[in-house]
Structures are given as structure tokens and as C-alpha cells.
């Protein structure tokens, strides 16, 4: 494998990891606040659909992004009502949200566009364009650093940079702000936060809303950045890979960057080499596709460093009377 | 003291939840510019209006009974087995291997052997998540989700690279031997001189599913193991105090659950397609979650809920055929049923409890 191919694979990995990273950070906010969210997949799917529909109707990818965030937030709200307000089972609510998105997107898509659940292909301003960073073209000829800067770092859509910027931002919010401290506390011991006079309900709803916004950006990126329009079931399990990455990263933002990059890279390699020939053995693409899940199970098993979830995760908070 | 009489808990709350789910589904149908009444009529006609419709409805019901029972058994041990999809898929692999490589002369012999294969493969697929939950504390919901994806990739590999007959293009196994063909219920009816459900896939597995309901009821409420499963599900420290081993119960409950999910394969793989195809489960594993929630994890409830979903599934197919409502309406209804009977259960329960409490107070005064 030569240098140019390596750059291409890495470039593709960056594109493919972006929705994973956004969804992973979305899950991070929710789960650090003590609300399990297995509905990341559904929220992304819904966002991809609303983003693509509005981007097609208005011809503006930015309006599409807003709509994507809106679609995802609506589902977040249902999750919040079920798991916070009515103290229901968060896992069951997540399952319901995944199915709701999966069904509604096709139902509405068929009604509006009549294309069997697809939206018409987006073009021009309906998609997020690639941004060429300053000097990318003039630096291209510089050996090694030139191609890395011009191909790998420059030339992505704005949402890719947003996703990467979210990592330090999330770290800062969680580790350095009052809100972050409370968010982490409410995921570990909600009673103590309640005793301190801070509303558990409000904090958790805030976390869920952030989760909805990030999933919305992830879905919008899928439909208006990575591809040109919405296709039925286009998330294809990415929400679950993001969930896997979250566990892999042990619920930490910088590790989330590493985990999603690893999973994005696996996908990029599987796309480029359907049957990876390593000389002694040939690895089929199915194995590469399943690898994120297998790795997560191994991590969960605790053989390679233990993944300990937030202590109050999955438990509705019942205030003492 | 109970806040509500038992009938309200077991029948009234799920019924109200179901009505809410149906009402919102009707709104969704209205929103896409179709008539809910016409949709319901099409579904009832298509699924229950003829023996042909019933034949399909009962075929789907059979699938959902197995996956519903699977979720229910695990739920009694307070384990949420979301991996029915993968376990049923692996059950299909078990059935295919047994039928393709063992010379079985007659279906009466083939059925129990295939059942053993299906149950063993399904149970094996549930064993690893169960063991990880019991020994290493890994959350069973996450591991079973991961195992669904791993099963899909594995089956994809096996079908494309190993089981696919030479020269065939589609990723499916070869046909099972003719001798292992399971009798359809329509054949049995014809044997008794009745013309019923011609060309429908419902087969003797339906009877196996009914027996499975009975056996699960016996297991949960009439055996020592069932008692231990329920005790463990109610309170893990309590069970521990009573000398019940959490590891043993977790593993056993998940083995039974996975085995039941795997057994679904004798219906769809052995009974219907008679070869192993890609994505043979078609989401039945997930519908099992809705069925178990709706049926309150009781085998009789599971049977009725499976019938409801069998009706929805077949009716949904008819909708797609005769109206412009896509098949995916069923997924929306399924989601709403899961949402209202599962996650938003308290939304219905709390006001009802208050109602009954105030009535009781008035009665006492």
C-alpha cells in the first residue's frame, strides 16, 4: 500500500467517522446524565429524513440542518417524556424510537415524494459543500505534509469540522463547567444533586436535548453531506456502532474520538478491500463490518480494561417524599 | 396493599395503551391522507376475512409466539433480551445444518431433530451474553444488540461462502430434502375433507408453538426453576439470600430464552422457505419485544398479542397491496405499541391508580 492510498483510506475514514463521532458524543451527554439511549439510530434516521426533505424543498442545506435537528429533537422529547417524566424503561423507549423513525420516515417519504421512501437526489446548495482550507492548493506539492493537509485535513464539509470541534468542547463542558459537573453528578448520584437544590429533571432534559441536537447534526450530515439525499434505513446500524464506540471509549470525549476513528477506519478499509488479503489469511468484509461489535463485546467483557457505565444509568429518579 | 384490582392491572391498562397506540396510528394514517376506517377494513378483510388470510396470519403468529415467549422468559428474570433477532437467525442456521447434512427419512423424525438444532443454536447465541452478564457484569442489552449484528455478519458469510450451492448466485443454502417437508395445516385440513387455507405457509409448527406456550406457563409458574427465575427477577439480593445462584439463573433463563427464539426457525426456515435465505427472520425477533410487553409476559397474553401482531403483519401486507399506504405502517404501529405498553406504561397506570384509589376511599367512607 503506497502513501497516496493510505491518505485516501484515512480521508474516507474521516468522512465515515463523522456521523459516528457526533452520535457517540450525543450518547455521551445522555448517558453521563443517567439516561440510557439506544435510540441514537432512530434519531439519526429521522434527522437524515427531515434534513434531506427540507434541503430539497428549500434548496438550502443549512435549513435542512435545522430541520434535521428539529426531527431528532422531537424524538428526544418523546424519550425524555417516557424515561424522565413517566419514569418508564429507558431501553424500551429507545427501542420504540428506533422503530418509530424507521417506519415514519418511509411512510412520510412515500407520501411526500412517492419514491418508495427515498427523497429526490440533492444537488448544489441542497448539500453541504466541501471547504477548501487556506493554502490547501498551494501546499499540495510539498512532500508528505502537502497531501496530508490538502487531502486529509482540507476538503471536508463544515459538519466534519463541527464534529471534531465538539470533542474538545465536550471535554471542556464536562470537566470545566458547573453544568458539566452537575451533569456528571446526576448520572452517578441524582439524589445528591437533588439535595443540593438542583433539579434532576431539568438537568436530564437538558442532556437529552443536547443529545438530540448532536444526533440531528449527525443525521443531517449523512443525508446532505456524506450522500445526496435520504435513502430508506440509510443509518444502517451506525447508531449502534456509535453506542459501541461510546462503551469502547468508556464514556469519555477524547477516547470517543479514538474509538470512532478506529471504527470509521475499519469501515473505510472494508469498503476499499472487500476481501482483505493478509498473505496467510483472507479476511472477508463481513468480518470487518462485524469487528466494531466484536471489539465492543470484548471491551464489555472487561478483559481489556473495564468499561464501567455511569452508576445511575438506566434508573429513573424517584424523588423522596 | 394493591392500588388496583388485578383485572385492571392485567387487562385494562394494556387495553387502554393499545387503544392509545391505535388512535395515534389512525392519526398517522389521516396525516398521510388516507382513511383509517378504510385501512382497518382492508386489514381485517385481508387478514381475517378468508381462510387464505387466516393461513398467513397464523403463520406470522407462530413466529411471534416463539420470539414473544423468548422475551417473556428472560423478562421474568428481569433480563431484557433484545437479541431475539440474532438468536432466531442462528436457529435458522441450526435447522439448515441439521436438514442439509443429516439423512432424515421422514418429517416426524426431522422435526424433533431440527427443533433440537434450532434451539441449541439459538441458546448458544444467548449463552455468551448471559455468561458475560452473570460473570463480568456486561449489560445484557448492549451485548445482545451487538450479537444481533455479529449474527447477521456471520450468516452473511456462511451463506455466501459456505452454504451457497455451486453455480447459484443468490446468498441462500440449497433446498432441504423433500422428505423433511413439514405438513401445512391446509394439507391436514384437506386430509379431513376440508378446504382451508390453500397455498398458505402455516404448518404444524403452529401446534408446536401452542404447546410451547403451555410448557412456558408450566415452567414459570409450576416448577422450582420457574420460581427461582421469578424470585431472581423480583429481587436479586432476595434470591441470593434464599440460596439461589444468580449466575445459574441468568444463564438458564437466557438459554431457555435463546432456545425459544431459535425455535422460530422451524416455522420460517423449515416450514416455509425450506432453505436458509439471507435475513430470514425479517424483524420477528424485535416484534417479540412488543408481543411480550403487550402480553404482560404471560404465555396466554403472548399468544393473544402474537395473534394481534400476526393480524397486523398480514393486514399490513394487504394494505400495501390494495391501498397506497406502505407496509411500513406496521413498523409505526409496532413502535407505538412498544412505546405505550412499555415505556409510557406509567402514563396510563398513574391516573388509573388514582381513580381506583379515590373510588375505594369513597366506598370505605
TrEMBL record, chain A:
Protein topology in the membrane: Multi-pass membrane protein
Predominant cellular place of this UniProt entry's protein: membrane
Transmembrane segments: 12-30, 42-59, 91-113, 153-174, 205-231, 251-270, 290-308
Subcellular location: Cell membrane
Keywords: Cell membrane, Membrane, Transmembrane, Transmembrane helix
Keyword Transcription: no
Domain of life from the UniProt record: Bacteria
Keyword set includes Ligase: no
Protein name, UniProt field: ABC transporter permease
Organism: Paracoccus spongiarum
Lineage of producing organism: Bacteria, Pseudomonadati, Pseudomonadota, Alphaproteobacteria, Rhodobacterales
From TrEMBL, chain B:
Subcellular localization(s) per the UniProt record: Cell membrane
Family annotation (CDD domains): TM_PBP1_transp_TpRbsC_like
Assigned keywords, A-Z: Cell membrane, Membrane, Transmembrane, Transmembrane helix
Pfam families with a match to the protein in the record: BPD_transp_2
Alphabetical list of InterPro entries matching this protein: ABC_transp_permease
Positions of transmembrane segments: 12-32, 52-75, 82-102, 108-128, 140-160, 202-220, 240-264, 276-295, 302-323, 329-352
Topology in membrane: Multi-pass membrane protein
Name this protein carries in UniProt: ABC transporter permease
Record organism: Paracoccus spongiarum
Amino acid at each position: 500500500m503506497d502513501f497516496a492510498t493510505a491518505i485516501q483510506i484515512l480521508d474516507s475514514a474521516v468522512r465515515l467517522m463523522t456521523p459516528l463521532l457526533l452520535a457517540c458524543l450525543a450518547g455521551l451527554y445522555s448517558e453521563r446524565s443517567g439516561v440510557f439511549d439506544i435510540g441514537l439510530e432512530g434519531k439519526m434516521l429521522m434527522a437524515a429524513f427531515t434534513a434531506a426533505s427540507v434541503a430539497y424543498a428549500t434548496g438550502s442545506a443549512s435549513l435542512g440542518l435545522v430541520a434535521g435537528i428539529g426531527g431528532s429533537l422531537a424524538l428526544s422529547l418523546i424519550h425524555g417524556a417516557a424515561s424522565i417524566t413517566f419514569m418508564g424503561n429507558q431501553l424500551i423507549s429507545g427501542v420504540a424510537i428506533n422503530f418509530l423513525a424507521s417506519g415514519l420516515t418511509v411512510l412520510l417519504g412515500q407520501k411526500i415524494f412517492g419514491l418508495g421512501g427515498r427523497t429526490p437526489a440533492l444537488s448544489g446548495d441542497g448539500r453541504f459543500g466541501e471547504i477548501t482550507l487556506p493554502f490547501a492548493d498551494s501546499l499540495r506539492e510539498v512532500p508528505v505534509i502537502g497531501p496530508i493537509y490538502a487531502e486529509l485535513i482540507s476538503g471536508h464539509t463544515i459538519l466534519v469540522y463541527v464534529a471534531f470541534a465538539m470533542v474538545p468542547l465536550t471535554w471542556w463542558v464536562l470537566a470545566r463547567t458547573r453544568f458539566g459537573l452537575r451533569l456528571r453528578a446526576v448520572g452517578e448520584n441524582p439524589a445528591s444533586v437533588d439535595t443540593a437544590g438542583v433539579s434532576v429533571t431539568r438537568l436530564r432534559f437538558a442532556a437529552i436535548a443536547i443529545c438530540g441536537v448532536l444526533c440531528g447534526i449527525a443525521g443531517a450530515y449523512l443525508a446532505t453531506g456524506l450522500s445526496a439525499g435520504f435513502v430508506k434505513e440509510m443509518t444502517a446500524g451506525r447508531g449502534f456502532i456509535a453506542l459501541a464506540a461510546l462503551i469502547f471509549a468508556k464514556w469519555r470525549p477524547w477516547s470517543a474520538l479514538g474509538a470512532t476513528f478506529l471504527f470509521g477506519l475499519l469501515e473505510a478499509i472494508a469498503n476499499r478491500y472487500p476481501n482483505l488479503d493478509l498473505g496467510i489469511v483472507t479476511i472477508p468484509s463481513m468480518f470487518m463490518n462485524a469487528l466494531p461489535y466484536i471489539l465492543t463485546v470484548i471491551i464489555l467483557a472487561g478483559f481489556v480494561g473495564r468499561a464501567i457505565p455511569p452508576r445511575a444509568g438506566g434508573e429513573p429518579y424517584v424523588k423522596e417524599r | 396493599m394493591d392500588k388496583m384490582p388485578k383485572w385492571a392491572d392485567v387487562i385494562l391498562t394494556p387495553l387502554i395503551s393499545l387503544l392509545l397506540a391505535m388512535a395515534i396510528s389512525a392519526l398517522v394514517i389521516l396525516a398521510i391522507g388516507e382513511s383509517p376506517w378504510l385501512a382497518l377494513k382492508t386489514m381485517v378483510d385481508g387478514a381475517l376475512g378468508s381462510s387464505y388470510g387466516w393461513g398467513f396470519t397464523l403463520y406470522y403468529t407462530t413466529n411471534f409466539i416463539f420470539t414473544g415467549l423468548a422475551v417473556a422468559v428472560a423478562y421474568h428474570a428481569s433480563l431484557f433480551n433484545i437479541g431475539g433477532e440474532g438468536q432466531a437467525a442462528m436457529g435458522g442456521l441450526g435447522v439448515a445444518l441439521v436438514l442439509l447434512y443429516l439423512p432424515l427419512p421422514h418429517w416426524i423424525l426431522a422435526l424433533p431433530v431440527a427443533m433440537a438444532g434450532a434451539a441449541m443454536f439459538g441458546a448458544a447465541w444467548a449463552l455468551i451474553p448471559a455468561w458475560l452478564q452473570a460473570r463480568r457484569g456486561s449489560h445484557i442489552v448492549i451485548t445482545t444488540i451487538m450479537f444481533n449484528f455479529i449474527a447477521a455478519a456471520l450468516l452473511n458469510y456462511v451463506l455466501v461462502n459456505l452454504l451457497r450451492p455451486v453455480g447459484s448466485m443468490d446468498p441462500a443454502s440449497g433446498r432441504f430434502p423433500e422428505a423433511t417437508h413439514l405438513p401445512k395445516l391446509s394439507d391436514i385440513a384437506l386430509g379431513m375433507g376440508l378446504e382451508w387455507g390453500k397455498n398458505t405457509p402455516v404448518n404444524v409448527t403452529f401446534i408446536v408453538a401452542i404447546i410451547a406456550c403451555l410448557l412456558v406457563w408450566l415452567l414459570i409458574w409450576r416448577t422450582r426453576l420457574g420460581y427461582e427465575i421469578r424470585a431472581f427477577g423480583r429481587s436479586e439480593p432476595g434470591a441470593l439470600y434464599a440460596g439461589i445462584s444468580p449466575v445459574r439463573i441468568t444463564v438458564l433463563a437466557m438459554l431457555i430464552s435463546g432456545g425459544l427464539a431459535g425455535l422460530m426457525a422451524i416455522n420460517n426456515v423449515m416450514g416455509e422457505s425450506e432453505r436458509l435465505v439471507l435475513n430470514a427472520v425479517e424483524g420477528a425477533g424485535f416484534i417479540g419485544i412488543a408481543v411480550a410487553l403487550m402480553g404482560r409476559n404471560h404465555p396466554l397474553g403472548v399468544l393473544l398479542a402474537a395473534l394481534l401482531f400476526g393480524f397486523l403483519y398480514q393486514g399490513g401486507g394487504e394494505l400495501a397491496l390494495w391501498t397506497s399506504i406502505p407496509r411500513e405502517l406496521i413498523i409505526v404501529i409496532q413502535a407505538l405499541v412498544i412505546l405505550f405498553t412499555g415505556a409510557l406504561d406509567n402514563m396510563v397506570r398513574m391516573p388509573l391508580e388514582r381513580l381506583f384509589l379515590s373510588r375505594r376511599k369513597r366506598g370505605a367512607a
